Amino acid sequence: MRKIGYLTLILSAVFVFASNTGYGQTQKGNVMVGANLANFAGMFQNDVSTFSMDLTPKAAWFIKDNLAIGPMINLGLRTGNNSTIFTYGVGAFGRYFISDKNIELTKKTRWFLEASAGFNGVNSKIDDVSSDTNGLGLGFGPGLAYFITPNIALEGLVKYDLTVGFGSSTTAHKVSLNLGFQIYLPGAKARQAVMGK
């Protein structure tokens, strides 16, 4: 119930402040929260290909204009070809928004580059054979944010992820197309909304 209250508070703050701000809320001190709701991916591990959907919530703070860093979590379940693959990860990500207006598709779009690092795991069962890879997870890729309001953006991200570590398999690779959304709040206004001041 508390989570619903916080979500309602954040969404209210977004719509209250939307008319007072411009597109591309990527200035220092601002906050970005959201998730990748659909992750259409091809996983290649032990010669098996599957289709999948994931959920990746994330939050970030702009430490300087156009550069944000923060935590992220990844949970995924893949099925197909008589297989079940469960993925998980916890770590940090960084995102850099490219500010060159010459490459913008419209005034409401911003290109960005994203990289992540953390602890990832890929645990699979294919027929009667189990395999797992757990260890360092690294990822990077380009994306595009489309601001449907001054503070809410739909986004697409093409990302390559690599997990290297220990287990019955030492590496797992993934290339994915992530579709999601982000909410951008000005730092001082976000603090006021959360603290009620």
In short:
The protein has 197 residues and is mostly beta strands. It is built from two helices and eight strands, in the order αββββββββα. The relative contact order is 0.22.
Account of the 3D structure:
The protein has 197 residues and is mostly beta strands. Helices cover 13% and strands 65% of the residues. It has two helices and eight strands, in the order αββββββββα. An eight-stranded antiparallel barrel has the order 1-2-3-4-5-6-7-8. β1 and β2 form a beta hairpin. α1 (2-17) crosses α2. The longest helix is centred in the N-terminal third of the chain and has 16 residues, at 2-17. It starts with a helix and ends with a helix. 30% of the residues are buried.
